[in-house]
Specification:
- The complex is a heterodimer of chains A (314) and B (366).
- Chain A has a two-stranded antiparallel sheet.
- Chain A is 71% helix and 1% strand.
- Chain A has a single domain, classed as Orthogonal Bundle (MetI-like fold), CATH 1.10.3720.10.
- Chain A has 14 helices and 2 strands; from the N terminus they run H-H-E-E-H-H-H-H-H-H-H-H-H-H-H-H.
- Helix content of chain B is 39%, strand content 14%.
- The termini of chain B are far apart.
- Classes of the chains: A mainly alpha (314), B alpha/beta (366).
- Chains A and B meet through helix 4 and helix 13 of A and helix 3, helix 4, strand 6 and helix 11 of B.
Chain lengths: 314, 366
């Protein structure tokens, strides 16, 4: 018996409707060009990004004349030279790279066992609990979360209140490098878990059972079976955390208290505090180059992981 | 005399009446022109939020609306974030997103040097202002300064039992380690630090090494670095004992019940101004009424109400200081009051501030 059309899902009916409209407008269809037409939104998006980068690249080659606050007509590498010579900018670049690397390593170390338990547990309650705990922070913006840490870790915060109960004087736990890294790890953790979860889910439990039946201990199974098989997920998660941490603005600004700038903070200062968009653009280009270089190094050393979308490394 | 060339009695009476009305209006509130162009429905003023915009609204915007019927909308975008938008609009010959920018004079000087500000030298109320209204380092009046402010040394009296700190050197006492605060780019502190470091103000900007030497000594005290709202919070929470900050923040904290006082140390204190300016690119009518708004801001009545809210000295002689601020070092009115205040040309500041900010941050983040 033919089913009533209204019993089909809404999305199917919408797609049918769109297809009918498309056939009326263009009866012959796209033919050879169809796949390219389908790609056009992505090309448009990337094109806009490239256009913006073009403008940034152009601005980075123009120097600011502080007697007129206009930019030079001619291109020069002055802004890049300044960025590489100025000790403050060099220290900011180094702090960003080091911070992103530390955050990536610690986040992966914490995310792996969390994801493993979340994927393997037989308790539906525990799985839901871990999922809710993971997703809850997503509903709270990064800035709000950073301010939350100010309340918790501040001199008048909850942690110092508890320490005060046992006679410990209030400690300054904020406005230093570790507090920025701590905030970043807390922020990046859900990203890492979400990138790792598909990789661990894809490893059949039977493989672990097989390894153990052949005499491997749980630790040996982890080291020689699970870790290698989860490598692609680890790389994917690591790359996402590394690039997001490297370019972060809010955590260094709020938890660093003006003493732990990352490159993004220096870019903001140049654009909005000293009105030198040329120098700010050169820092933006340097940040892109550094980020791309780090990703390239990972690709060369260990491959693209899940970001390769199933393509085999050559 | 032919009939055509004769002056009709009725016309003479009409003209006399018009002159009388215009004269009466001019005596109470001088306007730019006798012929008023069409009024816009609203004008947009960029302003700082909280008590700042409340004071502006009470002192200038509400009286302006009552007088002209033009609604005033306050845009609370940060001053340094609106700047590139205004510059882009002027460069692309678009209508700027705001009619008037309430801006720091230093920031506004950049716009003036770039040539994006309308000339304000024809404002009638400028005649009654003090020299403070004139921006230093630029020609004419692309900006009109509307009040001044001092970067005072604010302190917690209980932390200084023997009296207010007399010098920035007093802050080097080990007991203040971790209990001092400055702006995160050092603004307000560079010039007194130059003196505290043994240098001279004439050395700005060519020889600022004494400033950086003293900043390095302060860095050893592990100060907190922040923005305006942070200072009030830190004083309220008892996290700091002293800070170099704008007097308005200290006054705001005091009005909120915080135990706080302020002084001008022997090295002096930076004195600066804020002002109003109009970006180029508005229609003739919008420009006219925007100028009328700034003219209103320069009237004695508006200045009195606006600056009572801010606790700052205006640019019209004879304003009454807010309660408790008469004779206060943060409220200079007489020439002698300015002796210990440091005022550096806006042009020198904008040409060098990028380097000063970087150097300060390099020391503090090193």
């Amino acid at each position: 018996m033919r089913r009533n059309l209204s019993s089909y899902p809404l999305m199917w009916r919408l797609m049918d409707m769109l297809e009918a409209i498309f056939k009326k407008i263009w009866p012959k269809g796209g033919g050879f060009w169809s796949p390219y037409l389908m790609l056009s939104p992505a090309i448009l998006l990337v094109g806009l990004l490239v256009l913006g980068l073009g403008y940034i690249g152009d601005a980075s080659l123009r120097t600011l004349d502080t007697s007129t606050f206009l930019f030079s007509e001619e291109w020069s590498l002055t802004n890049y030279e300044r960025a590489l010579i100025e000790p403050f900018i060099r220290s900011v670049i180094w702090r960003s790279i080091l911070g992103a690397t530390i955050v990536t390593m610690i986040t992966l170390l914490l995310a792996f066992p969390y994801t493993y338990v979340m994927v393997r547990t037989r308790s539906a309650f525990l799985r839901k609990f871990l999922l809710i705990t993971l997703f809850l922070p997503f509903f709270i913006g990064q800035v709000v979360r950073a301010y939350g840490w100010l309340i918790i870790l501040g001199k008048q915060g909850i942690v110092n209140d508890i320490l005060g109960l046992v006679g410990i004087e209030p400690l300054r736990m904020l406005f230093n490098y570790p507090s920025v890294l701590f905030g970043l790890i807390q922020y990046m953790f859900p990203f890492a878990v979400l990138m790792l979860a598909p990789a661990l889910t894809a490893i059949p439990e039977e493989i672990e059972a097989a390894a153990e039946s052949l005499g491997a201990s749980w630790v040996e199974t982890m080291l020689h079976v699970i870790f290698p098989m989860a490598k692609s997920g680890m790389i994917g998660a690591g790359l996402v955390v590394l690039t997001l941490s490297l370019t972060d603005f809010a955590m260094p600004a709020i938890l660093g208290g003006g003493t732990q700038d990352f490159v993004a903070n220096a870019i903001y200062d140049q654009f909005f505090r000293t009105s030198d968009q040329g120098f700010g653009s050169s820092l933006a280009v340097l940040l892109i180059v550094i980020g791309s270089f780090l990703v390239w190094v990972v690709f060369v050393l260990v491959g693209a992981g899940t970001l390769a979308m199933g393509a085999k490394d050559k | 005399m032919t009939f055509d060339k004769q002056i009709k009695r009725r016309d003479l009476l009409k003209a006399s009446a018009m002159l009388g009305i215009a004269g009466a209006a001019g005596s109470t509130a001088p306007s730019l022109l006798m012929a008023e162009p069409a009024k816009p429905k609203e004008i947009i003023i960029r302003a700082w939020g909280g008590p700042w915009v409340e004071a502006l609204k009470a002192g200038v915007s509400d009286p302006f609306t009552a007088k002209t019927g033009i609604r005033v909308r306050h845009d609370l975008t940060e001053d340094n974030e609106i700047q590139p938008k205004v510059w882009a609009a002027v460069a692309q010959k678009r209508t700027p997103p705001i009619h008037i920018n309430w801006d720091t004079t230093t920031n506004a000087t950049k716009s003036a040097l770039r040539g994006v500000c309308e000339d304000l030298s024809d404002l009638p109320n400028l005649k009654g202002t003090t020299d403070l209204a004139k921006p230093v380092g630029v020609d004419g009046y692309p900006i009109v300064n509307t009040y001044g402010y001092v970067y005072v040394l604010a302190y917690r009296p209980s932390a200084f039992p023997s009296g207010p700190p007399e010098s920035y050197h007093d802050l080097l006492d080990p007991k203040f380690k971790g209990r001092l605060a400055f702006y995160n780019d050092g603004i307000g502190f560079h010039f007194p630090a130059q003196v505290a470091g043994g240098g001279k103000l004439d050395g700005i900007p060519s020889n600022m090494q004494p400033c950086w030497d003293f900043v390095s000594k302060i860095k050893a005290q592990e100060p907190l670095l922040g923005e305006d709202p942070d200072f009030v919070t830190w004083f309220q929470n008892g996290e700091i004992d002293a800070a170099c900050t704008i007097s308005t923040n200290a006054l705001g904290a005091k009005r909120n019940g915080v135990d706080i006082a302020w002084t001008i140390p022997k090295e002096g204190a930076k004195f600066d101004t804020d002002g109003l300016w109009i970006p180029r690119g508005h229609s003739e009518g919008d420009l006219y009424w925007s100028k009328e708004y700034i003219n209103q801001a320069l009237s004695k009545e508006s200045q009195q109400i606006w600056l009572d809210g801010l606790g700052l000295p205006g640019v019209i002689p004879g304003l009454q200081p807010p309660t408790g601020l008469a004779g206060d070092p943060s409220y200079p009115t007489k020439p002698a009051d300015f002796d210990r205040l440091i005022r550096i040309s806006g042009k020198i500041q904008v040409e060098n501030e990028s380097e000063w900010f970087s150097k300060f941050k390099a020391i503090m983040q090193g």
